[in-house]
UniProtKB/TrEMBL annotation:
Pfam families: HpcH_HpaI. It comes from the Bacteria. This is Citrate lyase subunit beta / citryl-CoA lyase. Keywords: Lyase, Magnesium, Metal-binding. The keyword Lyase applies. One of its GO terms (biological process) is oxaloacetate metabolic process. It is an enzyme of class 4 (lyase).
């Protein structure tokens, strides 16, 4: 029997509520344990962007050993039209520690469905949208069988379109993912990462943009940014205080005063539920 290595708090959190998604270079096996015991809500072993072609097989072998040996993670496999896609799925699909896969360069709904079918029944797929075509097809992709969440590959999207990294320039794309997720009945979309060298202040600023655009998760490249990101993506102290006051008033029999009361009450309940899930309601 293998020993479970994953952070217990994070392992028990439903992936639909994951705020931080830590990408780990699968060719660097020495970094796996640090990622596993970190506070990142979800860990993604990356076989794609961070791994050169000559190290793909070694990286895949690293992931197989890890997921057989007590680690738990998602895996970003290689894109569907690469020579590695089929072998990636064949190697990892039945491993006990596999949570799901991330499919890079998703542009069409059938890519997700075919990946899910090729892997195993019920395996969730995060569709990573990294191009103009992917973003324009976001709703169809969100509605495809097998799609679990949408994620935004900001850097490759910028390369494809020529957009700058300014939040205003990327607002349309982010809103498309948010609306598509809603249309597809999915959890909130996952935003692209801050720079690996970003300061805590920059991580907080980036997370504020993510939150403003209705996205509920964010990729992260540096394990040292995880705690700041989790805090920034959680209900704030002010939001928790507001929710407590409204819920206490409701329990005391407060009357409906206007048409906004029930929506505000629903929001307060959602804040309370999220804060409780993240261990913040009684903090």
């Amino acid at each position: 029997m293998t020993e479970t290595i994953r952070n217990a708090r994070a392992a028990s959190l439903p992936a639909k509520l994951s705020r931080s998604w830590l990408l780990v270079n699968a060719a660097k096996e020495e970094t796996f344990t640090e990622a596993q015991i970190s506070e990142s809500d979800s860990v993604i072993f990356d076989l794609e962007a961070s791994v050169s072609d000559d190290k793909k097989i070694t990286a895949r072998d690293n992931v197989v050993r890890a997921l057989e040996g007590g680690m738990s993670a998602w895996v970003r496999i290689n894109k569907m039209d690469s020579e590695f896609w089929d072998d990636d799925l064949a190697a990892i699909a039945m491993l006990p520690g596999l949570r799901g896969v991330m499919l890079p360069e998703t542009e069409r709904p059938e890519q997700v469905s075919y990946t899910a079918m090729r892997a195993k029944a019920g395996l969730p797929v995060i569709a990573l949208l990294e191009s103009a075509m992917g973003v324009e097809n976001a709703t169809k992709i969100a509605e495809a069988p097998g799609t679990f969440r949408l994620a935004f590959g900001t850097n490759d999207f910028r390369k494809d379109t020529g957009f700058s990294g300014d939040p205003m320039a990327l607002a349309y794309a982010r809103s498309r993912l948010t609306i598509a997720s809603r249309m597809g009945g999915l959890p909130g979309a996952i935003d692209g990462p801050s720079a690996a060298t970003a300061s805590d202040e920059q991580v907080r600023n980036d997370a504020e943009v993510t939150h403003m655009m209705g996205m509920t998760g964010k990729l992260v490249l540096n394990v040292d940014q995880v705690v700041t990101l989790n805090e920034s993506m959680s209900p704030s102290e002010d939001e928790r205080d507001w929710a407590r006051q409204l819920l206490e008033a409701a329990e005391g029999g407060s009357e409906i005063t206007d048409g906004s009361y029930l929506p505000r009450l629903a929001r307060a309940k959602k804040i309370a539920s999220l804060a409780s899930t993240y261990g913040l309601w009684n903090a």
